Amino acid sequence: xxxxxxxxxxxxxxxxxxxxxxxxxxxxxxxxxxxxxxxxxxxxxxxxxxxxxxxxxxxxxxxxxxxxxxxxxxxxxxxxxxxxxxxxxxxxxxxxxxxxxxxxxxxxxxxxxxxxxxxxxxxxxxxxxxxxxxxxxxxxxxxxxxxxxxxxxxxxxxxxxxxxxxxxxxxxxxxxxxxxxxxxxxxxxxxxxxxxxxxxxxxxxxxxxxxxxxxxxxxxxxxxxxxxxxxxxxxxxxxxxxxxxxxxxxxxxxxxxxxxxxxxxxxxxxxxxxxxxxxxxxxxxxxxxxxxxxxxxxxxxxxxxxxxxxxxxxxxxxxxxxxxxxxxxxxxxxxxxxxxxxxxxxxxxxxxxxxxxxxxxxxxxxxxxxxxxxxxxxxxxxxxxxxxxxxxxxxxxxxxxxxxxxxxxxxxxxxxxxxxxxxxxxxxxxxxxxxxxxxxxxxxxxxxxxxxxxxxxxxxxxxxxxxxxxxxxxxxxxxxxxxxxxxxxxxxxxxxxxxxxxxxxxxxxxxxxxxxxxxxxxxxxxxxxxxxxxxxxxxxxxxxxxxxxxxxxxxxxxxxxxxxxxxxxxxxxxxxxxxxxxxxxxxxxxxxxxxxxxxxxxxxxxxxxxxxxxxxxxxxxxxxxxxxxxxxxxxxxxxxxxxxxxxxxxxxxxxxxxxxxxxxxxxxxxxxxxxxxxxxxxxxxxxxxxxxxxxxxxxxxxxxxxxxxxxxxxxxxxxxxxxxxxxxxxxxxxxxxxxxxxxxxxxxxxxxxxxxxxxxxxxxxxxxxxxxxxxxxxxxxxxxxxxxxxxxxxxxxxxxxxxxxxxxxxxxxxxxxxxxxxxxxxxxxxxxxxxxxxxxxxxxxxxxxxxxxxxxxxxxxxxxxxxxxxxxxxxxxxxxxxxxxxxxxxxxxxxxxxxxxxxxxxxxxxxxxxxxxxxxxxxxxxxxxxxxxxxxxxxxxxxxxxxxxxxxxxxxxxxxxxxxxxxxxxxxxxxxxxxxxxxxxxxxxxxxxxxxxxxxxxxxxxxxxxxxxxxxx
Length: 1017
What we know:
Blueprint: H1 3-11, H2 23-31, E1 37-41, H3 48-58, E2 63-67, H4 75-89, H5 108-122, E3 128-132, H6 143-152, E4 159-164, H7 173-177, E5 181-184, H8 186-189, H9 193-202, H10 208-219, H11 223-232, H12 251-259, H13 265-273, H14 282-288, H15 295-302, E6 307-309, E7 317-319, H16 321-334, H17 337-353, H18 357-367, H19 370-386, H20 390-397, H21 402-406, H22 409-418, H23 424-440, H24 444-461, H25 468-479, H26 488-505, H27 512-522, H28 529-546, H29 549-563, H30 570-587, H31 590-607, H32 613-626, H33 630-640, H34 649-665, H35 669-686, H36 689-705, H37 709-720, H38 729-745, H39 749-766, H40 776-788, H41 794-802, E8 821-824, E9 830-833, E10 836-837, H42 846-858, E11 863-864, H43 865-872, H44 878-895, E12 902-905, E13 908-911, E14 916-918, H45 919-932, H46 936-949, H47 962-988, H48 993-1012
Parallel strand pairs: 1-4, 1-5, 2-3, 3-4, 8-14
Antiparallel strand pairs: 6-7, 8-9, 9-10, 11-13, 12-13
Helix pairs in contact: 1-4, 5-6, 9-10, 11-12, 12-16, 17-18, 18-19, 19-20, 19-22, 20-22, 22-23, 23-24, 24-25, 24-26, 25-26, 26-27, 26-28, 27-28, 28-29, 28-30, 29-30, 30-31, 30-32, 31-32, 32-33, 32-34, 33-34, 34-35, 34-36, 35-36, 36-37, 36-38, 37-38, 38-39, 38-40, 39-40, 42-44, 43-44, 45-46, 45-47, ...
């Protein structure tokens, strides 16, 4: 026998011997439609449980019967037993109901609803769920919320009965009001004269109707009182000694005076000696009592001696709660203290021997048998924690004196684990004391256990990581004996947690690759789902944090394989979805990332597990910010704020950092600065070097927006000098890109090109793709500058496309940028889409080109739509001109392929500078910069670009248009001016030799073009 007996007793319905069949109440229970709940209330002994059990038995209705008792002070226990009840009813069910483990607690309401939704799906149609003895629920208790969820989710195929001595709970009042729940009270439960006649016939008591009427008058219909009288007066007529309308409070005195003293000594001893057992089986009775005749149990059951039978094939007996309470109070009154203690000890030992730990602990606690409690705790603690029953473990430990707990490091450890949910700081102190005791005693397995739990607690709480320095040092010491760890699960847990601790506190640690290697080797040896989750998560985070793209891809492929397998638990599915969303962020697969974010949050809502919500929502923010999609980032930022926990300083630091990044992308510089200062305060408190580096990089971007490249450089140098970031390739990449930004902003193109080249080396060597956390628009500026410096390669174009980069000022950027559409106007109008010249199958009407020329010459802010219509169709009336313009616009957009190449903003038509590059716009910018730049080298670069770009007059085939001719002449004058400036610059001799040679060749080509056209100087 083991704890199965305890399970069966708690979840089995009564087995009745020839009960009174109360047809009028059967009709009431059966008359309501499916989906009905009942609240059945009345005094103790009024036949509530018997009514439900006899109804279910009469109609052969399947049921889950749940007895509420002191065990339910731990909410996780309730769900454990309900799950066992379903397993007993439907043993073939493929999926077990979830246990209330810690990950469900933040979303408890969701968990309750999802639990009962699944519960009703698994049980057979027509099943009744019965909660019995609800008045015995401990206080405080989760039971009211549990019952509300059970009623809310009740389908039409099932029914629910709640049995209690008390009136309906206030939380259920709305269900009574809307008639989802039907009350059955004392007026319904009290026996009628006719039902008493049935009782007398069943008990073979003569007297008929007269006797029944007398019994009804004396008891007021209270069946318990009637049975007490019949037990005492078998064979005779009913007397008048039971007080009128006797209440349960009178039962004790009645038994003392009328029943217990009149039964035989053997039966009396049996009652008293079994009074400490919560329930009885034949072998329990044999061990505990001096009465060897176990047949007495069935005899008492037949005599209706307030004994209930709960299981059919292997009988479990239990006294009616009123009678059990009476017997307990009687032995306390009659037995000497040492005799009572001996009875309780004997009963507790008998229970423990059969694996009934919870019942044994209760009795051990009543007699102060601390050694026995300690033994049970040490044997059962791990199982209780795995079932989410932390509070049960805490309650057991609470039965021990503090000195006993303090003297045993493992009791201290389990005290810490038990308090992890409700009192995390006390939990940490207990585990810390346990660790030091184990270290003093040289207990290596104990140190390993305490260390892993302590550091995992720091990681989960996210309150601060400074203290991890001590525990990392201790982990290094323990790691020297790594080969001595015989248990693969313990080794995997220790290694994974050590790796995560290093990621959070010291990414430059020399042994970090060693811990990665250890974790990799343990992947195939680990079988525990919990430990495997931590192991895979630690490896995956480390690969992405540090920029090890190849290994990250290896784990991602493995995760996808696991996700495709059946039977992955909800927590595992959530973790895998979260990690896959992270992988998509890392490689810039934005559609996949958002899909995984949505899927993960949907699973969280369905299961009630919201452990990863904050992290997953932040991935949505990352996607918006890294791609410059501010509306997307804003939507996820708004979802992020309500998920912040007060104690989690790291979460607050990350949130303020992301808000600052958003403001910086949106050019809200002052607000971004304030948010960065707040983020830095949180980060300094939590001590995470990686996040500090991210804030410094963002601060550098802010200084660059303010025009202070030297201040930006100081922040970046602080990141470079932080030895705790030594293995982080991504941070190294972003620092080089940011230093390139500093150099370009300081008008040092050589320095910018040098830093950008180092960034490209990191990209090529490591396969990096993620420039986190560089501001998208500043990265676009850096890449544009690098392209102008001739640093364009496949990796650069991949950055542009992957992160949807856009140059700060499109007119500043040359044709090397991968524009969706390029319009080449010098020497003839040409349209190039994604590198391919557009060749319309049918020559477009001339008006389309005239409209395009108009938009090119209008530049920003474009041309009013009405003015465009008038200029292109001057002879048409207003409406006809607008209609013609709309037609031309539609056809031109189709010709240019991308719909949003032509915009309509504030009534003005203009070419979209983010989608369309126009050579003459860039030419004008180069001419203006050359004229305004005093530094010879910079002026030479601008002139070189302009002279190379000008290949002939602007759109010569459209010179008949007045606006085209005027603009062409303006560009021609600018070209002439650039030739003159180039001559003067070369004559000054201030350019580098190579630059002078390049500019000289470009000038010669320009002069040759001028001569061919007969230009005079």
